[in-house]
Amino acid sequence: MEKITVKKMEVDRMENKIRLAGILKESLVNGPGMRRVFFSQGCSHDCIGCFNPDTHDFNGGFLWDRDELIKEVLDNPLLKGVTFSGGDPFEQPEAFGYMAENLKKHGVNIWSYTGYTFEYLVENMHKKPYWEIMLNSIDVLVDGKFQEELKEDNLKYRGSSNQRIIDVRKSLANKTVITVSY
Ligand code: SF4
Q1: pLDDT computed for residue 167 by the predictor
Q2: Among 39, 48, 52, which is best to mutate for testing ligand 1, by the most ligand atoms less than 8 A from CB?
């Protein structure tokens, strides 16, 4: 099964595709302002109470052309940014790294969700170059697994209170986690 997944991801890369569960063209609830939301297909975190189990299968979803998605964002002056959601975008890092790097070249504000902690990503980014590319392009990271016992209804942009809204640029520069309050 692992071999099939790796092979499919390699084909996606060769064809400049990204595997998504879906896209929200205009959302006001996935970060500040009107945002385009890309839901990554594939997640291994297996959080109890996950709100989006259809996104777990790495062979599911649909393939989109990365450059077309980038162009559509740049062509829409109403958008204040993009949000990578999931699934887990960091489990499809080559494709999301490409998206992040090329959107950032045009000054697009980028948020991303992940089931990994910020510390884990930073500790391992030198072994996983596409994680490094993602972290060097993303503005804000909402990190950590969803923990059902820590779910609170009034949390903005987060599902459970262990998750943090992290200013990635400041955190990397200061070598410590700097969060943003909402
Ligand atoms: S990281 Fe997100 S998509 Fe993955 S299992 Fe956890 S809640 Fe579900």
Answers
A1: 98
A2: 52
Pocket of ligand 1 (CB under 6 A): 43, 45-47, 50, 52, 55, 86-88, 115, 145-146
83 belongs to a structural domain: yes
Q: Whose CA is nearest to atom 8 of ligand 1?
A: 50
Q: Which domain range does residue 46 map to?
A: 2-174
Judged against a pLDDT cut of 90, whether residue 24 lies above it is answered with yes
In a domain, 182, yes or no: no
Q: How many domains does the chain have?
A: 1
Q: How many CB atoms lie within 10 A of CB 25?
A: 11
CATH number of the CATH domain containing 145: 3.20.20.70
Ligand 1 centroid vs 75 CA: distance in angstroms?
30
Burial class (CB in 10 A: 0-12, 13-18, 19+), 95: buried
Closest residue CA from atom 3 of ligand 1: 87
CA 146 to ligand 1 centroid distance, Å: 6
Alpha helices in the chain (DSSP H): 2-14, 66-74, 93-104, 118-124, 129-135, 168-174
In a domain, 75, yes or no: yes
- 84-102 pLDDT, tens digit per residue, is 999 999 999 999 999 999 9
**109 assigned to some structural domain:** yes
